[in-house]
Structure formats: structure tokens, C-alpha cells
Amino acid sequence: MNKKIVTGIFIFFVVTAGILTDIQAQLTSLNPVNVNNKKTGTAAAVELLIPVGGRGMALSGANIATTTGIDAMFWNPAGLARIENTAQGMVSSMSYIADINVNYGAVAIGFGSFGTVGMSVKSLGFGDIPLTTVDDPEGVAGRTFSPAYITVGATYAKRFTDAITAGINFKLISEQLHRVNGKGVAVDIGLQYDGVAGIKGVMMGVALKNMGPEVSFNGPGLYRKATARDSRRPEQYYSSIPSSWELPTSVEIGVAYKSTFGEAIGYNVASSFAANSMFLDSYKFGGEVTYALGNISLAGRGGVDMLDTGPDDENIFGPTFGFGVKVKTQALDITIDYAYRTVDYFSSNNMFSLKFGF
Q1: Are 257 and 205 in contact (CB under 8 A)?
Q2: CATH of residue 188
Q3: Domain count of the chain?
Q4: How far is Cα 319 from Cα 58, in angstroms, rounded to an integer?
Q5: Structural domain harbouring 168
Q6: Is 120 left (phi over 0), alpha (psi -120 to 50) or beta?
Q7: Segment 89-110, tens digit of pLDDT
Q8: Cβ neighbours, 10 Å, residue 343
């Protein structure tokens, strides 16, 4: 029965991916433009797309099928069920574009046959931004504001068989820009299958990400002074009615192959396709080589994310590279991962992550 349920979920994901791709093709044919998705730039909560975790970023997100443990909470929640320790904790920090810092923290605990539960928090730091208004367009008063973007997640994953795992991730979204607030909720659902077609080392993963209602906005920053027409009322504040915006929903399907050379060297190659409702579709490719030396494991990684661009589209993010070091002790496992991504027009992205396993 469990296999039938998981198979049904997998079929649902594949059909949804086809529907999203077909909708995008219809939009382009009905509205001839020089971009491959006319909805690019209109999504809310795009911070949901910013990667976390050094390993996944170094692989350019191609690890939908291979991500495991606490790293999987962002990439594919099904991988959380493949946690190697009883409990794991993780922190990561990245210097993003335009001097934006992305900080992330997560914890996960395995509860045997019940499954694995995790919690995560991601925040964006923008620093102090000069505040300009209609009365002070040059910011002479020296006032500043600092936007606060925070996403809190709760993840549950379960292993149905030795080969099949599934997971779900609930996210609460909060955006604060001076005196305007945006709030929303999103859900990720994932599935992983190890040993596709009975072939050892062949893995498949599917993730339907960022599903949810449109993000709405409110707050005193939307008030405007005005005088009502055909009325004796004096000038007073009226609230502007803001639009709500869709989430950047996507369907990602990935395959991978992992194997070893002897006892010390392991490798895996992975690829994935992402059908994005509010952005360009992408093809991701990544590879990883590991070397075990006693209680220490070393890893080298690389990847590339190729967007399906039109004549007026542009992909500012280039190839990714990274490495990892894992040290096992009797008390805990310590993993340090680093990722580097080239970026056009801005400084390159650098990400460090630190993971503990108990």
C-alpha cells in the first residue's frame, strides 16, 4: 500500500511538471516577446529561491536525487529521512549580491519508525538603507531603515522502504520593508527513489516546491494623504489597496548515479530539470568526488545551472565550485562545506556551512 501511495505522488509530480511547462509555452505564444517567461520578475517571496548549504550550492542544485539529512530540508525534503545521525544541526552563511547576507540555521531529529522532524530559519540581512520620502527626497535627515526577510520552516520526512522516502516542508514567510509587511505560507513536497529499475547506484528525486496562496501586504506605509472628491472632509490618510503576488512555484525532477573506486574513493554525477512558474526553466548538472582517509573524508564538487533563456533573458549566475571536509569522532560528526559561485555585475557568492551530527 505504501508503494502505491508513493507511486501516485510521483505520477502527480510528473503530470504537474508537464502542465507548468505547457502553460508557459501558451503564455509565450499568446504574447510574443523576447523572453521565455513573461512572468519573470513578478513573483513574491523570491528569497525562497536563494540556496542554503555549501554542498547543494556547489552542485548548482543538481542534487535533488542525492541530497540527504539536514541539507535536504531546502533542496528536497524527502532526503531528510536518510539522516545518518540521530540528530543533526546546521548553520550556513552566504555573501549574496548587492551586499546582502543570507543566514540559515536548522536542526533535525530522527524518531525511528515515526520519521524525521526538522526546523529551519532563513534570514536576509540588507544593512541600513537611507530613507527618502516625498518631503525628504535626498535623505538629508539621515534616517535609515533595514528590511527584514525571514522564512521559518518545519519539515517531516519518512522512509517507506529501503529505497523510497518522502517528505513535506511547511514554510512561514515574513517580509518587512520599512512600514509595509508581507506574509505568506508555502509548502514543499518531495520524493526520492534509490535503485531505480533495480540498478544499484541510480537515484531519482522529485520535488514540488513553494506551493501556496498569493502573498498579501499591509501596514501603515501604505497610507497616503488625500482629499476625497465631492466631499466636505478635510485632507486625511487613506490606505492604498496593494496587489497580492504569486509564489515562485516549481517542479524539479532529478536523476543521479553514485559509485566507488575501491574502498576510499567515491563519486556521483547528478542532473535535474526545474520547471518554474515565475522564472525561466533550468537544467542543472553537478558532480562530486569523495576520498575517505580514516575518520576524515574530503570532497570536491562542481556544477552549472543552465537557464532556458530567450534573446532578452540573462543569467547572471555562472558555474559553481566547492569542497567539503567531514571529521568523525566518537561523540559527533563535524562537516565543513564551502561553495563559490561566479556572478556577473556583482561580487561572486561565497557560502560556508557547518554541520554537526550526534
Answers
A1: no
A2: 2.40.160.40
A3: 1
A4: 9
A5: 2-357
A6: beta
A7: 999 999 999 889 999 999 999 9
A8: 13
